[in-house]
Write a structure and sequence with these properties.
The protein has 176 residues and is of the alpha+beta class. It has one domain: Sandwich (Jelly Rolls).
């Protein structure tokens, strides 16, 4: 089971947790530790800064410009600015570091909640706030979070909110 390095800084972020280990106020890069559960996935998006991810625990598949890519043998993957990408956690949970110039940190701070907040599904107000925050921090949402399987289901709130904005990007099974 993945656990946070420093729970004193932990925030509830999306369906997992984030901890800002080094903030942009330090004068350099921002380093954020993320812990996400199995099945957690982001919508396909692009942002105006490079992002380097270092996978510490678990298995995560990244979709980068339409191709499914896994971190290298050291757990590293680079997500270039302006290139559409997203992730999906495939193991029981996963823990990674996200290293950016700092705008992503602003996004995390604006949508995260105190760790004492109970986990809950995204409601319409939160989905709208997340979309606004993404735009304010240089993140362009290109599609809703993709379905893990093409089985019939009720669209998620994010899919209903963003479904008309971009073509759907669906995950295909990833070979181990």
């Amino acid at each position: 089971m993945a656990t946070m390095t420093d729970t004193t800084k932990a925030l509830r972020f999306l369906d997992g947790y984030a901890s800002i280990l080094i903030g942009k106020a330090s004068g350099g890069a921002s380093v954020i530790e993320l812990v996400m559960p199995q099945g957690s996935e982001s919508p396909v998006h692009a942002h105006d800064e490079d992002e380097t991810v270092v996978l510490l625990e678990g298995e995560v598949a990244f979709r980068i410009d339409g191709a499914i890519v896994r971190p290298d043998e050291r757990g590293k993957i680079v997500l270039p600015q302006g290139v559409p990408h997203g992730y999906r956690v495939e193991s029981a949970d996963a823990r990674w570091l996200s290293i950016t110039a700092g705008r992503y940190e602003g996004f995390v701070r604006s949508v995260a909640r105190p760790l004492t907040s109970p986990p809950r599904p995204l409601d319409l107000a939160q989905a709208v706030a997340l979309t606004v925050a993404a735009t304010e921090h240089g993140i362009e949402l290109l599609s809703p979070a993709p379905a893990a399987a093409p089985a019939p289901r009720t669209p998620s709130l994010m899919e209903r909110l963003h479904g008309a904005l971009a073509p759907a990007h669906h995950w295909s099974p990833v070979a181990a």
